[in-house]
Specification:
By secondary structure, the protein is mainly β. The chain has a domain of 178 residues: 6 Propeller (Neuraminidase), CATH 2.120.10.30. 1% of the residues lie in helices and 34% in strands. The strands form eight sheets. It has a five-stranded mixed beta sheet with strand order 4-5-29-28-27, with no helix packed on it. It has a four-stranded antiparallel beta sheet with strand order 7-8-9-10, with no helix packed on it. It has a four-stranded antiparallel beta sheet with strand order 11-12-13-14, with no helix packed on it. The two termini are 33 Å apart.
């Protein structure tokens, strides 16, 4: 039996109860009954033992593959074993959580989660790429499905991808924006939510984004200017990135009606920046500076500062090239070490990048002048592939794993993990 703990979401006093017990202190159970605990010991692909003798699996993104075992040889605490079918939320072993609340032995998993966003009421919406379902994690720790997005046609790395809400207008207009792949294109839709928070019928606001099995971009976010930003990939056709008449290989900036936003650098066009291969993470710091993560092909993954109208070089260059007309990344990594997807700005102003193939959370300090400090590699190999990172409703950094995409995930994958501020700063 797994321990069930009270919800971790902040109460009206923003306080937390006493430290939770670790799973190691829970009554004995079969490995499958404690999916947030250490992985069962076994042999990996082709009979090879994994590191520490744990099971290996081989998920990934953008053609990359994850490696190694997925959890350290230490117990995780379960913040709340949700009475649901689709998610299990854990905390890092160095974190503290609320006191013990009860116990049950349901098995809760997310199936290929892609995007997680926090709503103004402190609940969290999570998209599932292949099922096209959207799950809602409520402030009291319950998980409910809000519906399935119609028209999604997953194939390879496409499907239901990014989610966003306009927090400034959400109280009066409860609308969700989603990016997904159909049989013919990638598109952005607006979906009304009813009084119970369930999905209504979607309305397409931007269509014709190139799609393919890989390089679909897919992240959505409202910027501090109130406009919706959309990341797209080159869809495997490299010239798309430099073609200003193509929506592929770009960051787009649009209104909530899908029109080019006022002030865009190319009149009548939604294009905000171009020369991108596959951007899957965008975020803004407290100064309004825009950051983006980008998958490289085989040499360099990138963290960029995005400025309107700028050309980031793909496919002419990959990584820093110091060539006139192109903007170099502020940080770059070998593709084996990163393959970054979602990004977030942490409580201390650092940029966090969720790494798929690199199986890590990268923290990039940002100085007062906007320059970056030496990147720090966190959680290396601890949780497998990381798809998304966000600031949770409690102010802590949360991560979303992506181990059910390919390979053999262990019991409990995929999961959302709440990290302690002692780790993230």
């Amino acid at each position: 039996m797994c321990k069930t703990l009270a919800p971790w979401f902040p109460s009206s006093t923003m306080g937390y109860a006493a430290t939770a017990p670790s799973l190691a202190a829970a009554p004995s159970a079969a490995p499958s009954a404690t999916p947030c605990g250490p992985a069962p010991r076994g042999r990996g692909r082709g009979g090879r033992p994994g590191r520490s003798g744990r099971l290996l699996h081989d998920p990934g993104d953008d053609g990359t593959q994850c490696r190694g075992d997925r959890l350290p040889g230490r117990s995780l605490r379960v913040v709340h074993l949700l009475r649901c079918h689709d998610v299990r939320v854990c905390v890092h072993p160095d974190d503290t959580g609320p006191d013990e609340h009860g116990e049950h032995d349901e098995h809760c998993e997310l199936a290929v989660p892609w995007s997680a966003i926090v709503l103004p009421d402190s609940s969290v919406l999570v998209s599932e790429r292949d099922s096209a379902k959207i799950q809602r994690l409520t402030p009291d720790g319950r998980l409910t499905s809000v519906g399935t997005v119609p028209g999604v046609a997953p194939n390879g790395e496409d499907g239901l991808l990014g989610l966003a809400v306009d927090r400034r207008t959400y109280a009066s207009t409860t609308v969700l924006y989603a990016y997904f792949s159909t049989a013919s294109d990638n598109r952005v839709v607006r979906i009304p939510l009813d009084a119970q928070g369930r999905l209504g019928a979607p309305t397409a606001i931007l269509t014709g984004i190139p799609r393919a099995a890989y390089h679909n971009g897919g992240r959505l976010a409202f910027g501090p200017d109130g406009y919706l930003y959309v990341t797209t990939g080159d869809a495997g056709t490299q010239p798309n990135a430099q073609n200003l008449d193509s929506l592929g290989g770009k960051i787009l900036r649009i209104t909530t009606e899908g029109k080019p936003a006022p002030g865009n650098p190319f009149p009548g066009s939604p294009v905000w920046s171009y020369g991108h291969r596959n951007v899957q993470g965008i975020a803004w710091d407290s100064t309004g500076r825009m950051w983006a993560s980008e998958f490289g092909q085989s040499t360099w993954d990138e963290l960029n500062v995005i400025t309107p109208g700028s050309n980031y070089g793909w496919p002419t260059v990959e990584g820093a090239a110091a060539r006139s007309g192109f903007i170099d990344p502020v940080r770059q990594w070998r593709t084996d070490d990163s393959s970054p997807s979602g990004i977030a700005i942490g409580p201390d102003g650092s940029v966090f990048l969720a790494a798929l193939k690199g199986e890590s959370l990268w923290k990039v300090p940002v100085n007062a002048d906007g320059s970056t400090g030496e990147p720090q590699r966190l959680l290396r190999g601890d949780y497998g592939c990381l798809r998304d990172v966000l600031t949770g409703p409690d102010g802590n950094v949360w991560i979303v794993t992506n181990n059910t995409s390919r390979g053999t995930p262990k019991p409990g994958d995929d999961r959302i993990v709440r990290l302690p501020q002692s780790l993230t700063g």
